[in-house]
Amino acid sequence: MSDQIELSQADLNEIARYHYSTSLYEFMLKAWEVLEPDELVVGWHLRAICDHLEAVSRGELPRLAISIPPGFCKSMLVSVIWPAWEWTHSPHLKFLTTSSSEDFCTRDADKMRMLITSDWYAALWPLTFPRIDTVLRFQNDRLGERWGKSFTSLTGGRANRLILDDVLSVDNANSEAERIKVSRRFFESATSRLSRETDAIVIIMQRVHEDDLIGEIRERQAKGEDLGFEFLTIPMEYEGDANETSIGYSDPRTEPGELLLPEYRSRRWVDREKITMGPYAWAAQYQQEPSPRGNGFFDVGKFLKYKADELPKRLNYYMTSDHADGGKDYNVFRIWALDEHKHYWLVDSFRERCRIQIALGIITEGGKIRIAQRGAFALLQKYRPICWYADNDAIINAQLRLIEDTMRATGVVTRMEIVRQGQSKKRERASALDSYSRLGMIHLPDNHMGETALAEYAAFSDTCRHDDQVDADGLLPRMAVHPAFVPPVAERKASPDYVVDIGGGGMSDAYHCF
Q: 337 lies in which domain range?
């Protein structure tokens, strides 16, 4: 007697039905075979998006905004595959999908119709479609519906899911009138398209401007408006920001500059596209970190690039820093080197949106203080800079005692000077950096760190939102008051404990040596 159990086709279908309807990720892999002739290049970002869409389906994330570079399956997954997957267990749901172009709406409607009428889908979840009003609108026999509309005509109708897919085009991104029109239509009309309070809105897009729809939502939530959006941000190159979300996600990459999917978009391709697109477009569309186009304050062509083997051997190291305490701003700690010709070389950097304690890289375990692998103290430990120039703000001043205790406990000691810059405007604070760059005295590494700095320099203006690197780097001319070469750190004697407070006029006679 055989122990094998023969399964009928109905049994196999039931197993497959359960397998695919309980996992959007597995469903996506199979659906791709139905929809596309080319093999799918699978990356971790696909599972991250699927996990967040499943959370939307469970009612855990009623408002989700996803920003990801173009060409990474965002429309296929969110506007085509996810609605078809939801119909596997909730065929009554109504979807209203919208984009900046009706052509895109038609493309995605055709794709979804192709999927749900395929032999594979129909065998597992047999639906009929008694009503097909137009190419963009069809209804199944369980009263579920998919309706695609251009965002410019988003009126009438109700849905359980509102999907906004690239509602502001690249061509219209630089038009303030178009950006205002998109934001107004969303806040005044789009949100009223939902049938019930528990229904969901999903925005999927590549960022195209600082004031695009996701930028406007972020700004309003930062000011305290309870819009309820969760942000899943996936840049092409990792910049040290984990981009954590409430469902436990964090970017799995660890090294700055690490690519999103190098098997699909190689380093060579990325470097070529950066040159073709320019720093502003690249930062927006691929890094999901748009800044306003600069007003020409910095001439970015004057900043010199260097390869790793071109760094001079005889250097003095210094650290500069600009501080934040969570939120949308970055903590920036820079290691700069000064050569015998008074040229400045950016050598290393920590730049991340995080609490100041994480940025400092201080860990307390069992009552003992130690240094984390990343952060300001890891840089101090590695380079032993002659001095640390810190921008004067309440955030760093509140940490001075902890910094002193850490230096004493770990033996990682450097002079620290708090630099007061008063109420000067952004341009004034950056003027010295600009002057030195125009003299050909600022050298940036020819890597991701240098490119990120150049992108911010290119976008710099009095009204730009992100100038953390400019603020930190603008402190570097303070180094010029020191001789090009001084005795090594180990040969210098520590001075008494007190803080230097540098005003706008220059160096004080007193130093803070912890």
A: 296-502
Q: What is the pLDDT of residue 488?
A: 36
Sorted by sequence, the CB contacts under 8 Å of residue 277 that are 6+ apart come out as: 285, 286
Number of H helices, E strands in the chain: 18, 18
For the residues of 365-376, what is the DSSP string, one character each? ETTEEEE-SSSH
Which tens digits make up the pLDDT trace of 243-301? 999 999 999 999 888 999 999 999 999 989 988 887 778 889 999 988 755 556 888 88
Parallel, antiparallel or unpaired: strands 316-322 and 304-306 = unpaired
514: in domain:
no
The pLDDT, as a whole number, for residue 487 is 33
Which residues are paired to 444 by β-bridges?
A: 305
Given a cut of 90, is residue 479 above it in pLDDT?
A: no
> Which residue is listed with tokens 């019930």?
196
Our measurement of the distance from residue 394's CA atom to the centroid of its chain's CA atoms, rounded to an integer in Å, reads 26
* Cα–Cα distance for residue pair 128/138, rounded to 1 Å: 10
Contacts of 2 (CB under 8 A, 6+ apart): none
> Dihedral sign, CA of 205, 210, 216, 217?
positive
Note whether 439 and 313 are same-domain residues: yes
Q: Is residue 291 part of a domain?
A: no
**Which pLDDT value is given to residue 143?**
93
Residue 205 is encoded by which pair of tokens?
Answer: 């897009």
Helix (H, G, I), strand (E, B) or coil at 217: helix
How many structural domains does the chain have? 2
For residue 176, give every residue at least 6 positions away whose Cβ sits within 8 Å of its Cβ, in sequence order, or none. 211
The predicted model gives 418-443 an average pLDDT of 80
**Is residue 456 one of the residues assigned to a domain?**
yes
Residue type, 290: P
Residue 502, pLDDT above cutoff 50: no
- If we measure between CA atoms, which residue out of 461, 457, 377 comes closest to residue 411? 377
List, in sequence order, every beta strand (DSSP E) within 268-392.
304-306, 316-322, 331-338, 344-352, 362-365, 368-371, 387-391
Q: Parallel, antiparallel, or unpaired for β 387-391 and 415-419?
A: parallel
Q: What is the reported pLDDT for 59?
A: 96
Residue 271 is assigned to a structural domain of this protein: yes
Q: How far is CA 253 from CA 47, 238, 268, in A?
A: 14, 7, 19
DSSP designation for 259: B
